[in-house]
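Bug report (template v2)

What were you trying to do?
Predict the complex of my protein with iron/sulfur cluster.

What happened?
Run completed; filing so the output is reviewed.

Input:
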Amino acid sequence: MDRPDTIAYRGKGNIYLNITDRCSCSCTFCLAEFTSEVFGYDLTLHAEPDVEEIERAIELAFLEGQVDEVVFCGLGEPTMRLDDVLAVTEWLRLRRIPSRLVTNGHGELLNPDRDVAAELAAAGLEAATVSLIAADPATYDELCRPMFSKAHRAVIKFARRCVEEGVATTVTAVEQPGVDLADCEALARAMGAEFRARRLVTPPARAETTEGRTGGRIEGEDPRR
Ligand code: SF4
């Protein structure tokens, strides 16, 4: 029998949730371009887990000890499954377990006509890590290749809305050619968010065999962003 999918995995004192491999970006530096392994776990999903499966996976992960927070991250964009993220966030809130969303900031592009930040805050989301990636739309589009136009503007708006809703918000950008980290930090500070720069590391095998793509990975606790 095949090994079951990894839905919840532990790392850096947290539990991370791997609930989808779908994403509205196709970043040049995306980890999924060259591996499905994070913290030693294979995050290949054969099917997206339902809410009950996610909650059961969290309970099992907690058997190995307490953690600081439960983080929606994995190898895809969690807000592709907004209603399920909300349900699990509420489930965590009722158990007084801190939750954080790692997101590309496309929540409102993916779920039009909804106030996603307000819904997340109401469900009990405590923190969000939003990938700004670049300070200007042209660089953002080049690096992230989003499926939406004007996505960079939407990312900024989403991060700002998270701040307004009282979600502890950290904006991140990646150290790589063409990215002005000082401008990214200024944008983050202007919206009242924290800022964190992330380092891009290019794996040698990928660098040798791949042309025209960054083929790197971002160093940090949430390796995809
Ligand atoms: S790095 Fe993040 S936002 Fe970019 S394609 Fe990968 S999962 Fe999507």
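What did the reviewer find?
Residues 204-221 have pLDDT under 50 and may be disordered. The two ends are 33 Å apart (CA to CA).
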